[in-house]
Design brief:
Layout: H1 4-19, H2 33-43, E1 46-47, H3 54-65, E2 69-71, H4 74-88, H5 94-107, E3 111-114, H6 117-130, H7 142-156, E4 163-164, E5 167-168, H8 172-189, H9 191-202, E6 207-208, E7 213-214, H10 229-238, H11 249-270, H12 277-281, H13 288-302, H14 309-319, H15 333-344, E8 350-353, H16 355-362, H17 366-375, E9 377-379, E10 401-403, E11 409-412, H18 414-417, H19 420-429, H20 436-454, E12 459-463, E13 474-480, E14 484-490, H21 495-500, H22 503-531, E15 533-536, E16 541-544, E17 553-558, H23 568-580, H24 595-612, H25 617-621, E18 628-632, H26 633-642, H27 646-658, E19 659-660, H28 667-678, H29 685-696, E20 702-703
Parallel strand pairs: 9-10, 14-17, 17-18, 19-20
Antiparallel strand pairs: 1-3, 2-3, 4-5, 6-7, 8-11, 10-11, 12-13, 13-14, 15-16
Helix pairs in contact: 1-4, 1-6, 2-6, 4-5, 4-7, 5-6, 7-11, 8-11, 9-10, 10-13, 14-20, 16-17, 20-26, 22-24, 23-24, 27-28
Length: 704
């Protein structure tokens, strides 16, 4: 993870401030405010907007990377540190808080200063003068206040809490101690009791029928807290073996409240929650790995992956049915699918079923029902049995049912665990058919194309031949309407990486899937730019250069959900990062695991350099990755299923490209756009802004 340079700078500044506290005893001559501000400007090494050439910009970037200079925005981190230290550790930082806050109020984020003690002392001195009549009030930052309150709460419970680099020092020992306390409390309460309460409190009013999923996402308003839903569900299932609790009703409520409060506090002190959409928009590509790791942790605690009934059943039809016989089972695919449909259709978020229930519903032979139930269930003692720390893996969502000791079967909400029907059968086929992943890749392409054609979309696909020193390639899918969109589709799943919180193999997965798909799409664009057309399947499908607006829209699609990585800001910054440099691991022994993603960057750069030869100066000024996005297959299909026409689908794609908000949730734009489309008489400012920008300022993003 990056961010270490900023952490060193925060420590350095705080150390100098503490040693310079005697400055308040100096007999300072108060000068005119304008003169002080002019001195602050002259003291700076660099000022944003006043850097004359590329050479100086490179000097600045190198100085920042080496920790020789720091941006005045760092004072925000220093204020956070001083405030948390004052609230949590009861240190009197009132004067320093006042001085540093006033400095940042006047400097903003445009100045760069040398990391030298004498410079920090001068800055502090000027800050003292500017803050003479200023009184620092308690922080109005809801997120910061919540962190301070949660840290204080945990400290009062006996946990060893300290402040470091503007955040709570979350050592592995501290995190493990908190997790262990939660685990013991859930044991006493009983997992069933906790699960029911979590679903009642946090999902009851969040279901959206249009997209068949819960709106479980990052909150937009910082006054609304994010809830540790994923952590609590997985902790509860780990203790489904506890069928009886010896607590009375009052004690149960106390335990429930304690478990939820401690879990919320754990989330808060981890500082993995973005404070605003503008924070993500201003993310430096050098900090991308830092943000990705934070968001992975956030998802592990808060966001369970969801799959709709329609997507699960159709995925099995295309990716399981053709090779079902390889599993050598006593039941047929249709029988298996009928059982899946029956269970996925259950309206309850939690309950118990038995063999007889499924027999009555499906009329499938009882010995087959018994075998199916065995194949799609986890023994209750095995559910999340390795989930003994935040970093440990879970298996709850890998199967749709849990086998209880009494012979019955427990189910949780199928939006979370229903995808286990696909995973269970995949696991039974794969050992007998080792090329399953490869052949499934083509089936995913057919799946998407069939769904689009069923809606009347104008789809092209096929292979084009070598021409003018450019190799022919397979083109997975092109939507050819008033604007062409290239789709490249991969099987790659990222579920294991999200589960294990290991970001190193995640980059390898991205290299094989989403990034490789972008390389292929850019290759199509290069071929089109150089040769003027694409003839697919010996001319049966044709696309002229004039039918494409450059840079063309390029959508990478992978089979599983990719959560925040489908947000445009993360897509663009990842592609920029590998184009301009390379990704390295903190542990140098793991750098070889990043070879593939870095090699992708070289391939991408080679293609883009050639594309620029065929573009006008105007086109070259446009962000080359502005029209590139990553999508999950379910995300694309949900948009297709919701829309009545290709034009409506294009409007959703446009929003994915030009709009981003703090939720980082790709399903919200689907709901917003469909609301616009279903209420055409309502003049939405948001919609009009999107339309205006897409026509007049095509490389602009809307940050909400």
């Amino acid at each position: 993870m990056s961010g270490s340079v900023d952490e060193d700078n925060v420590n350095f500044i705080i150390d100098v401030i503490q040693k310079s506290s005697n400055l308040k005893n100096y007999n300072l001559n108060m000068e005119d405010k304008g003169i002080i501000l002019e001195k602050l400007k002259k003291l700076a090494n660099f000022v944003v907007g006043n850097i004359p050439d590329e050479k100086r910009k490179n000097e600045l970037n190198e100085s920042v990377s080496n920790g020789e200079v720091f941006n005045s925005f760092l004072f925000v981190r220093v204020v956070r540190h001083l405030y948390l230290e004052q609230v949590v550790d009861k240190v009197d930082n009132k004067e320093a808080l006042k001085v540093i806050q006033v400095l940042h109020d006047h400097l903003g984020n445009i100045y760069y200063y040398s990391k030298e003690s004498i410079v920090i002392e001068q800055l502090y001195n000027y800050g003292l003068q500017l803050s003479e009549n200023y009184e620092y009030l308690n922080s109005s930052n809801e997120v910061l206040n919540r962190i301070a309150e949660s840290a204080t709460y945990l400290k009062d419970l006996g946990f060893d809490i300290s402040v470091k680099n503007g955040e709570i020092d979350c050592s592995q020992m501290l995190l493990q101690n908190i997790f262990d306390v939660l685990d013991r409390k859930v044991t006493c309460l009983g997992g069933h009791n906790l699960y029911r309460e979590v679903m009642k409190r946090f999902t009851e009013d969040k279901y959206i029928g249009l997209i068949d999923r819960y709106l479980i996402t990052r909150t937009i308003d910082n006054e609304d807290r994010n809830e540790p839903i994923n952590l609590l569900i997985n902790l509860s299932a780990r203790h489904f073996t506890t069928t009886k609790s010896f607590l009375n009703d009052i004690q149960k409520k106390e335990f429930l409240d304690d478990i939820i409060k401690i879990s919320e506090s754990l989330l808060d002190i981890l500082c993995v929650q973005g404070e605003s959409s503008f924070e993500y928009a201003n993310m430096k590509i050098s900090d991308l790995s830092y943000y990705i790791k934070k968001e992975m942790i956030f998802d592990k605690i808060c966001i369970p992956m969801q799959y709709s009934q329609q997507f699960i059943l159709k995925s099995m039809d295309y990716l399981i049915s053709p090779w079902f016989e390889k599993a050598n089972l006593v039941y047929s695919y249709n029988e298996y699918r009928n059982v899946a449909d029956c269970i996925l259709s259950l309206k309850s978020k939690y309950g118990v079923i038995d063999h007889q229930y499924l027999y009555d519903k499906t009329k499938i032979a009882k010995y087959k029902i018994k075998q199916i139930l065995n194949d799609i269930s986890l023994k209750v003692i095995d559910v999340n049995k390795n989930y003994n720390s935040l970093n440990a893996t879970t298996n709850l969502f890998s199967r749709p049912l849990i086998s209880l000791a009494n012979g019955n079967f427990c189910f949780i909400d199928q939006l979370f665990s229903g995808f286990g029907f696909y995973l269970a059968m995949y696991d039974l086929i794969k050992p007998n058919y080792n090329i399953l992943d490869r052949v499934q890749g083509e089936s995913i392409e057919i799946f998407l194309k069939d769904e689009m054609i069923a809606k009347g979309y104008n789809c092209l696909s096929g292979k084009y031949n070598d021409k003018n020193d450019l190799k022919g390639r397979d083109c997975d899918l092109i939507l050819k309407s008033n604007q062409a969109i290239f789709f490249e589709i991969k099987k790659q799943s990222i579920m294991k990486e999200f589960n294990s919180l290991d970001d190193i193999p995640m980059y390898n997965t991205l290299a094989k899937g989403m990034v490789k798909a972008q390389i292929q799409a850019f290759s199509h664009e290069l071929y089109l730019q150089k040769n003027g057309f694409l003839d697919l399947d010996d001319g049966r499908c044709h696309l002229d250069k004039e039918e494409v607006v450059f840079p063309s829209k390029k959508i990478s699609i992978c089979f599983s959900e990719y959560s925040f990585l489908t947000n445009k800001l993360f897509t663009k910054n990842l592609l920029k990062l590998i184009l301009k440099g390379s990704i390295t691991a903190v542990d140098i022994n793991r750098n070889r695991e990043l070879d593939l993603i870095n090699e992708n960057g070289k391939q991408l750069k080679s293609i883009i350099d050639k594309i620029k030869e065929y573009q006008s100066d105007t086109v070259q000024e446009i962000d080359i990755f502005h029209n590139s996005i990553f999508c999950s297959l379910q995300q694309i299909l949900t948009a297709v299923w919701c829309c009545d026409s290709e034009e409506q689908f294009f409007e959703i794609v446009r929003e994915w490209i030009i709009r981003s908000d703090k939720t980082l949730d790709a399903y919200i734009p689907i709901c917003i756009v469909r609301s616009w489309q279903l209420n055409p008489d309502e003049k939405s400012i948001s919609r009009l802004t999107s339309e205006m920008l897409s026509h007049n300022m095509p490389n602009t993003m809307i940050i909400c």
